[in-house]
Write a structure and sequence with these properties.
The complex is a heterodimer. Chain A is of the alpha+beta class. Chain A has 2 helices and 9 strands. Chain A is elongated. In chain B, the strands form 3 sheets. An 8-stranded antiparallel barrel of chain B has the order 8-9-10-11-12-13-14-15. In chain B, strands 6-5-4-1-7 form a 5-stranded antiparallel sheet. A two-stranded antiparallel sheet of chain B has the order 2-3. Chain B is mostly beta strands. Chain B is elongated, with a radius of gyration of 24 Å. Classes of the chains: A alpha+beta, B mainly beta. At the A-B interface, helix 1, strand 1, strand 4, strand 5 and strand 6 of A face helix 1, strand 4, strand 8, strand 9 and strand 10 of B. Strand 1 of chain A pairs parallel with strand 4 of chain B.
Chain lengths: ~210, ~270
C-alpha cells in the first residue's frame, strides 16, 4: 500500500515541479508565440488548504491539501485536489467492531479527485476599510476521485460548495465544504458513507 | 504492487515531458504588463488596438455580472494587458483599466491598420495546435469488469483541426479489485468546427489490477495489454470548453484468452 501512496505523491510532485518549472521558463518566453506583443495570461491557480475531515464512523481529523485549478471559461473551471490527514485516532466503532487493527500509513485518510467547478455567483467584495473592490465568487464543484483509508481504495463522488475572494489580484482566499461519498466495507451494513471536508486556503493565480 | 514502480517512473517521465512541452509552447506565459504587483517586462510592446466598433464597454471585472463603468468610443485606442478565461484586461487612452470581451475587441484594428488577430469564433481552426486537458469518468457496462467505476485524467494535443493524440492515466474500482489504466489514443474529429461534433478514436494501453481487502473472487492480478476503440460526441459549451460523451470497447489480452469490455464515459475538457 505504501507504494501506492508514493505513486500518487510522485505524480503530484512531478506535476507541481513541472508547473513551477514551466512558469519560470514561460517568463523568459513570449506571451504568445504568434504575436510580437506582450499580452499576459492568467489561467492557472495553485493553492494550499487546511481543514477538517469528518470521517463517518471514525474521528474527525485535521486535513492538509493542495490543488491546481485551470480556469476554462468565465463560468467553468477544472480542479485537481489532493488531501491527506495524519494517522486517524481509534474510534469506539473500531474498538467495538470486528475490524482488524491497522497502523502507520494505513491509518491516514487520503483523498484525491478531479472536479468540474461552476461559478454560480460572481461579484465584488468590499472589505470594511478598503475602497478597492475584490473579485469574489460563490462556486459549486462536482467530480470523481479516490479515497484511501484502512487499506481500502474507493471510487468517490465529490460534491461541494465554496466561496473565494481575491484579496490581491493574484492571491485568492477561499473556503470550501465538500462531501466525499463512497462505498465501504468497514461498517456492518456495507453502506455508502459521507465524509464532510471543511477547509480554508490560499491560491496563487498565474 | 511492486510491479507498479517501473510504471511510476514511466508516468512521471511522461508528465515531466508533457509539462516541458507545454512550457515550450508558452501555454502559461506570464506577463503582468503594468497592472500587476510584480511587473515583468518582456521587452515587448503592448498590443495597441483602435476601436472601429461604435464603442467598447469596460467592466470592473472579468465576468458578465460586473458593472460597466466606462465606455471607449470609436476611434480611440486601447492597450491589451492580460487575457483571462473569456476576457481581456484593457487600458484606455486616458488610463482607465477594465475588462472587455473578445467579441468586442475583435472589432478593432492594430496600429498597422490590420484587424486585430484575436481568436476567431469557429472551433476547429482555432483549436489546431492546441493542448487539451481534462478528466473523464464512467463505468464498464459489460464484460468481466461490469459495474466497475473508473476515472482518468487526460492530456491531448491537436495537430490538425481534426486530428489529435491523447494520453490517459486513470484508476478503476469495484468491491473486489482496484487498478490502474493507461492508454494512448488517436482521435479523429472531422467536423470540429461545429458546436456538436462526433469523433472516433483508437488506441492501446495497459490495465493493472490489484485486490481489495475483502476480495473473494479470483481476479487477473497484474498487467494486461488492451486495444481500445470507440465513438465520442463533443459538445463545445464555450470557445475552449467541451463536454464529451463516449462509448468504447476494450479487447484485453489475458493469459489464455481475449476479454471484451464495454464502457460509457463522460468527460470535461478545456483547450489552452
Amino acid at each position: 500500500m505504501e507504494n501506492r501512496f508514493q505513486y500518487i505523491l510522485l505524480v503530484l510532485v512531478s506535476v507541481l515541479a513541472g508547473l513551477l518549472g514551466l512558469s519560470s521558463i514561460a517568463n523568459a518566453q513570449t506571451a504568445d508565440d504568434k504575436s510580437q506583443f506582450a499580452v499576459g495570461t492568467e489561467f492557472l491557480e495553485i493553492g494550499l488548504s487546511l481543514g477538517m475531515i469528518n470521517i463517518e464512523d471514525f474521528p474527525s481529523e485535521t486535513a492538509t491539501g493542495i490543488h491546481f485549478t485551470f480556469r476554462a471559461t468565465e463560468d467553468y473551471f477544472l480542479q485537481l485536489n489532493y488531501m491527506k490527514t495524519s494517522e486517524v485516532s481509534t474510534s469506539t466503532f473500531e474498538e467495538q467492531g470486528s475490524l482488524t487493527s491497522v497502523s502507520g500509513s494505513d491509518r491516514e485518510f487520503i483523498h484525491y479527485d478531479v472536479l468540474l467547478g461552476y461559478n454560480l455567483y460572481q461579484g465584488e467584495f468590499f472589505s470594511a476599510d478598503s475602497k478597492e473592490a475584490n473579485l469574489s465568487s460563490l462556486y459549486l464543484v462536482g467530480g470523481v476521485g479516490e479515497t484511501e483509508f484502512r487499506n481500502e481504495s474507493r471510487f468517490t463522488y465529490t460534491l461541494g460548495v465554496g466561496y473565494r475572494v481575491a484579496f490581491k489580484r493574484r492571491y485568492i482566499v477561499h473556503v470550501d465544504v465538500r462531501d466525499y461519498n463512497h462505498k465501504t466495507s468497514l461498517n456492518a451494513s456495507g453502506d455508502r458513507v459521507n465524509n464532510i471536508h471543511w477547509s480554508a486556503g490560499v491560491s496563487y493565480l498565474f | 504492487m511492486k510491479s507498479m514502480l517501473p510504471h511510476c517512473n514511466k508516468l512521471t517521465l511522461t508528465l515531466m515531458l508533457a509539462t516541458l512541452l507545454l512550457s515550450s509552447h508558452g501555454a502559461f506565459s506570464q506577463n503582468e504588463a503594468s497592472t500587476g504587483s510584480s511587473s515583468v517586462n518582456l521587452g515587448k510592446p503592448l498590443l495597441t488596438l483602435e476601436v472601429i466598433d461604435s464603442f467598447v464597454e469596460m467592466r470592473t471585472g472579468p465576468g458578465r455580472g460586473y458593472p460597466i463603468f466606462y465606455v471607449i468610443e470609436q476611434g480611440e485606442s486601447v492597450e491589451v494587458l492580460v487575457r483571462r478565461a473569456g476576457w481581456y484586461e484593457i487600458r484606455s487612452q486616458n488610463g482607465k483599466v477594465g475588462w472587455a470581451t473578445p467579441a468586442q475587441l475583435s472589432r478593432t484594428l492594430q496600429a498597422t491598420g490590420e484587424p486585430a488577430d484575436l481568436p476567431s469564433v469557429s472551433f476547429g481552426d482555432y483549436l489546431k495546435n492546441k493542448w487539451r486537458i481534462g478528466f473523464t469518468t464512467g463505468d464498464f457496462s459489460d464484460g468481466q469488469l461490469k459495474g466497475t467505476d473508473l476515472f482518468s485524467a487526460t492530456v491531448s494535443y491537436r495537430f490538425l483541426s481534426w486530428l489529435s493524440v491523447e494520453g490517459r492515466v486513470g484508476k478503476l474500482f469495484n468491491s473486489q479489485s482496484e487498478g490502474d489504466i493507461r492508454a494512448l489514443n488517436i482521435l479523429v474529429e472531422p467536423f470540429s468546427q461545429n458546436k456538436l461534433s462526433p469523433e472516433i478514436f483508437i488506441g492501446r494501453g495497459v490495465l493493472s489490477l490489484d485486490s481489495q481487502p475483502e476480495q473473494t473472487a479470483s481476479i487477473n492480478e497484474g498487467d494486461s495489454n488492451f486495444i481500445t476503440y470507440g465513438l465520442g460526441l463533443n459538445y463545445y459549451l464555450g470557445r475552449n470548453f467541451v463536454i464529451r460523451g463516449e462509448y468504447s470497447q476494450y479487447s484485453v489480452s489475458t493469459d489464455d484468452d481475449k476479454e471484451k469490455l464495454d464502457s460509457w464515459k463522460i468527460g470535461f475538457n478545456t483547450f489552452f
